[in-house]
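User: Design a sequence. Structure:
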């Protein structure tokens, strides 16, 4: 019998006995499942059924990722016994009982899967969207890695949607230098931005859009990205939530994801931009077997 058929029969048997599903820390190299920190526990029948679909519908690759993965989905029966586990290997990839089956699954609805985990408190799930968003928005860096200073850098400021009020101070420094500005200059930038945009939600939207247009990894991480995250730091979570919830631009969504890489989001921002992410990355209906 085909290996894929056997795996699906095995998963069908496992999930028919599922009583609770845990998401535990770590991947294949993190020791016994029972000793790991529990990041989330799903008990309601409807949520268990939803997760079953998210982690079993998809395409078997016939191969395995070479990393250890993590966190890990653990299916337990009514007695608490672990029936099966699947380590998570990046965006939309899981590996069921990897040491035995050795056949990763590319899930049909990766956005739905990671948003489900985020909504149940599993940390850093928005970060999983970084690579697909970089690809979709073509944010791969070229040369130069950082925006140059002076006249050569002015087109970059315009293309990135940097608020006009900040152009004079930023045109004198490179992107790399912008990420290393002293606190006094960052405070000055914050004052200028607040004067030009009194609404904190408008400022959040503008800053997130700017952050979401930066090439990765250098500019977005160490260059202007570092400056934007500092400018975002004095905005309340409520303002960021409002800006995220009304996001219609993929660049704003990317900005939220970039910020999440350096924060401890507990799923609220994932809830806010969930609809936008689902629109950007709908399920692969052809891959739902």
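Assistant: Done.
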């Amino acid at each position: 019998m085909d290996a894929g058929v056997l795996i699906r029969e095995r998963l069908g048997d496992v999930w028919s006995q599922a009583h609770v599903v845990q998401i535990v820390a770590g991947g294949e190299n993190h020791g016994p499942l029972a000793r790991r920190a529990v990041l989330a526990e799903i008990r309601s029948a409807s949520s268990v059924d939803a997760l079953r679909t998210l982690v079993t519908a998809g395409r078997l690759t016939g191969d395995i990722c070479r990393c250890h993965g993590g966190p890990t989905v653990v299916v337990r029966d009514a007695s608490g016994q672990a029936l099966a586990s699947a380590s998570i290997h990046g965006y939309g990839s899981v590996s069921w009982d990897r040491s035995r089956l050795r056949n990763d699954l590319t899930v049909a609805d990766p956005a739905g899967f990671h948003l489900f985990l985020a909504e149940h408190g599993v940390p850093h799930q928005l970060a999983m969207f970084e690579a697909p968003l970089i690809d979709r928005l073509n944010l791969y860096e070229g040369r130069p890695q950082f925006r140059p200073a002076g006249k050569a850098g002015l087109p970059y400021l315009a293309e990135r949607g940097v608020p006009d009020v900040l152009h004079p101070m930023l045109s004198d420094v490179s992107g790399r230098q912008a990420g290393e500005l002293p606190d006094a200059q960052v405070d000055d930038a914050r004052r200028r931005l607040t004067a030009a945009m009194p609404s904190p939600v408008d400022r959040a939207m503008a800053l997130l859009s700017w952050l979401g247009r930066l090439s990765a990894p250098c500019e977005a991480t160490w260059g202007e990205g570092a400056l934007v995250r500092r400018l975002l730091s004095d905005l309340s979570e409520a303002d960021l939530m409002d800006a995220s919830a009304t996001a219609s631009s993929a660049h704003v969504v990317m900005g939220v994801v970039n910020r999440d890489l350096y924060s401890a989001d507990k799923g609220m921002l994932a809830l806010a931009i969930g609809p936008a992410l689902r629109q950007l990355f709908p399920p692969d209906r052809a891959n739902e077997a």
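Residues 129-285 form one domain. The mean pLDDT is 91.
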